Each structure stands twice: as C-alpha cells, then as structure tokens.
Amino acid sequence: MHLPFFTLGRDDLSELELSVANMPAAVESLLPSGEWKPLPFRVSGNGRIVVESEFRATHPFVLRFPGIDRR
User: Fold this and answer.
1) What is the pLDDT of residues 3-38, one digit of tens each?
2) Cα–Cα distance between 46 and 60 in angstroms, integer?
3) Cβ(7)–Cβ(53) under 8 Å?
C-alpha cells in the first residue's frame, strides 16, 4: 500500500501520526532516485503509528507499507 502526501503548513514535521487498519511491518519513503528508504516508526496506540522522519513543508512524500494488502 502507498500513501502520497504533503504538508501545507509552514513548519517542518519531525514525525507523522497515522491511523492504520492493519499494523505494518515496515514503513518506507520513496527517494528521488527511485529507491525506497526504511523509516523508523513506533506504535502509539490502538490502530495508530508514528513515523519518525523529517517531513519538510510543501515537499511531496510517498510512503509505502510493505506487507499490507489493500483489499
């Protein structure tokens, strides 16, 4: 499963909290080179994860959650 997004705020984010239906085994970010970079994340509660990375304001991101099928 892939999640494209960008933040419209003026401040960079040091983490991103997401609600998930299924807990991912990994979280990866697409690099400009086309390679996938693993990102650290932690479980923050019932159905929520926190992805720990620098998310720059107005820069697009594509996250991938290997092992999760969208059915």
Assistant:
1) 887 777 888 889 999 998 888 999 999 999 999 999
2) 27
3) no
pLDDT tens digit string along 34-57? 999 999 999 998 889 999 998 888
pTM as predicted: 0.82
Q: What is the DSSP letter of 19?
A: E
What are 34's two structure tokens?
């086309």
Burial 17-40 (b: 16+ CB within 10 A, else e): ebeeeeebeebbbbeeeeebeebe
Q: Any long-range contacts for 31-40 (C-beta under 8 Å, 24+ apart)?
A: 36/64, 39/63
CA dihedral 56→21→36→39, nearest 10 degrees, is: 60
